Amino acid sequence: MAFDIDMIKKVYDQMTERVDKAREVVGKPLTLSEKILYSHLWDGNATQAFTRSKDYVDFAPDRIACQDATAQMALLQFMQAGKPNVAVPTTVHCDHLIQAKQGAKADLKRANETSNEVFDFLESVSKKYGIGFWKPGAGIIHQVVLENYAFPGGMMIGTDSHTVNAGGLGMVAIGVGGADAVDVMAGMPWELKFPKLIGVKLTGKLNGWTAAKDVILKVAGILTVKGGTGAIIEYFGPGAKSMSCTGKGTICNMGAEVGATTSTFGYDESMERFLRATDRSDVADAANAVKDYLTADPEVYETPEDYFDEVIEINLDELRPHLNGPFTPDLATPVSEMKDKAKKNDWPIKVDWGLIGSCTNSSYEDLTRAASIAKQAVDKKIVAKSDFGINPGSEQIRYTAERDGILKIFEDLNATIFTNACGPCIGQWDRSDLKGDEKNTIVHSFNRNFSKRADGNPNTHAFVGSPEMVAAIAISGRLDFDPLNDTLLNEDGEEVKLDVPSGIELPPKGFDVEDAGYVEPVSDGSDVDVKVAEDSERLQLLTPFEPWDGKNLTDAKLLIKAFGKCTTDHISMAGPWLRYRGHLDNISNNCLIGAVNAYNKQTNFVKDQLTGEYDAVPKVQRHYKEKGIPTVVVGDHNYGEGSSREHAAMEPRHLGVKVVLVKSFARIHETNLKKQGMLGITFANEADYDLIQEDDTFNFIDLEDFAPDKQLTIEIVHEDGSKDTIKANHTYNLPQIEWYKEGSALNLIKKQNRS
Fold it and tell me: Which residues form the Aconitase/3-isopropylmalate dehydratase large subunit alpha/beta/alpha domain (predicted)?
């Protein structure tokens, strides 16, 4: 029996009428993405056709999911909203605060000891407000959601950028900041600019060493890290139908790496199989009754160029295995070309670690395909040359895989089975085999490979591949190993070749688990006491941000001009900093410490204009705040790429930064800045980025007239007294300008609740 089955049936009951009405209003056949969007309009049936990339639209998501690192700040904000319960089904999943070190049992024990204060807070606040709680060790949020909550045709939001994983079950699932989630928890609409649509037609069928992961690795190479910005990617075609549900989830998951709003697939038999295998036959039956509404209209897939803004076609028969990286997930290299490319770029050939798991590739099928390679190594007397780490996706997967002997295969290869958690994928990895900044290579089945992300070492070259390819390369110990063509020497000195991997889509004996790790919310949480100690280093109750005074912003100093890629990892690092995700002041000590200063090409070393000396970014900014001086952050393209973490917006806001001025934003980060009452704007002329000098002062001379579609004028005063006047664009609509005026979206919610 599924969770929230009555809600799901209600979605399907209203979907037919809403989609039929939308088709009539739009005047043409609809894609699946449009069907889901139009059937989740806040105001009910469509009354107008929305313009892609232009119209802001209010939606009514069906549910919310939060992981423990982001849930802290989201729920601290919700506690201020004055609501007794969440308005839509919501869950919290404890998967980010568990460090991989010794193995599952020891690591989970240590996490429960070191983060018990946070886990207790999350469990108590969940009980108080009617939120489902998944304990540490229960699994990675997106795999747990796929196994328990995702359903075809639904809409969900989650406080993690890889919420998009649920597109593997035909949802429109979108990563957001905590403030967006708070809106929906409080019973308010969720706003999104109506997305563009990218269609990916898949023909043929995956074969040999090629996996579902290779589809998105190929797409990432085509679109780059910002090519999907503002768009939903919809996959279709015979190749899409031939893939497993969890394979579809992998593809959707990593769509976040091309900036896509989300990705999705039409409902098909693989999704039905997965629903029934995960004890949700009631959902499958309900979906089958409206299945024509859970995929695009036939005309769309017949002539996709007429309905999508961009169409990509990939023949799976011809697709070959890829490795993407290092340092960016869109640097795509076919495995067959890695030998030459690695040599040309001086990438370290020796592979120290192979890591399998994460929310991208930790399903039962993923483990079986990787295990089929590991078993060959054992049977053919091949000694693995690299260390191995495995993170199962959920306790249900771990328990089932152990029952079926899959985990023992990895253990026979001396692999370490880590907790059912994110671990190394988000920097929660106590890596003991390296010291300092030694140049080295790792391969993993994760989604991101930004500098420092896995282990904090800026010289770790991380490459992304499928679980089976990671297993093969880790066994060989060489980045340039091509299992399709190369051989290995076994213990007897014989040359042996690995056979193609084989996998099992769903466990033949069914899934099983003794304790899934779920804690159901109490029916009435009004008497539950949520405690936050005043002297806590981990948790801090929030103080509302100050409203705008309505005046022009003048005499603002430059804090940092960020050079090149500046992701949310650069703005607010994860890893050891995760311990402070519930304490805004403490975590603000990592604000922008990973951003590269354009003037000296160093990190965490900027000029304090008041003293003329250089120091750490947070220290300099705190000095400006102490003196009451506003500041500006300047950035390059796709600023805020990566995670949905709103801390990357809340930290500079808390420390007194007033404006973020960049060439372009990643979608989620731009929204997060707006929600927190920040001014997030872009250069009208990108070349004006080059005008910014280290000692500049900024005057926003017409901010008093802040209005939609109206450029802002900025006077830049240089140290020698000379001036440049530039224009900046923004995407604020009237409601978002109200957030700015009130100091944050949450301030506006509280004001509305009082009135």
Answer: 40-477
Fold of 5-43+54-315: Aconitase; domain 3 (3.30.499)
Q: Characterize the bridge pairing of strands 172-175 and 155-158.
A: parallel
Cα 529 from Cα 390, distance rounded (Å): 38
Residue in 4, 68, 160, 387 annotated catalytic: 160
Write out the H or E segment, with its range, that includes residue 264: strand 262-265
CATH 3.30.499.10 fits 322-481, yes or no: yes
Q: Which of 18, 431, 637, 645 is catalytic?
A: 645
Mean per-residue pLDDT, 605-621 = 98
Residue 284 has pLDDT above 70, yes or no: yes
405 touches 378 (CB < 8 A):
no
Q: Quick check: is 95 catalytic?
A: yes
Whether residue 435 has pLDDT greater than 80: no
The reported pTM is 0.90
Q: Band of the pLDDT at 28, cuts 50, 70, 90?
A: very high
User: Could you count the other beta carbons within 10 Å of the beta carbon of residue 383?
Assistant: 14
Catalytic annotation, pick one of 62, 68, 95, 180 = 95
Residue whose entry in the numeric block shows the structure tokens 């579809």: 248
| Active-site option among 39, 115, 476, 643 | 643
Question: CATH assignment of 553-754, given 1.10.260.40, 3.20.19.10, 3.40.30.10, 3.40.50.2300?
Answer: 3.20.19.10
H or E element in which residue 345 lies: helix 338-345
Whether the domain at 5-43+54-315 and the domain at 553-754 fall into the same CATH topology: no
Q: Is 643 a catalytic residue?
A: yes
320 is catalytic: no
